[in-house]
Lgl_C domain-containing protein
Amino acid sequence: AGFSNGYISLYEISNIQPLLILEPAEQAKQSLLRVFLRQGSNPTLFYAIHSYGLLLAWDLAKSKKPESMDDLNLKDGSEVTTAELWQYVAISSNSYTNLLAIGFSNGEVHLHELSKLSTDRDSRKRNKSLSNAIKVFMDI
């Protein structure tokens, strides 16, 4: 769940208490529009987008801090009003690409290809479940 102060809480469906609360960087402590779990082989990677145009990538297998922060450099007072993440699969090559469509208050829509973060890790770490990654941080 994302909150108006930029914090993100991760929950198990069967528990009302958060398993983990992630504190954003100082510049990201503003209203969070949406949190996306990335489809693919890395369940510990997710994205958060803010209405003022900051896109954060988190990888819980590495850190409780964002792995990257990209500023969309919004102009003319426009804001992000909607965002959708989906996976494009190329059947011929059996590969996939994660795409993010972002709608803005000025009527524009941008399409972004999300980079394949964390591809240099070995397969054991890459296939770590989100639950296991959260448990590691809870033990620290």
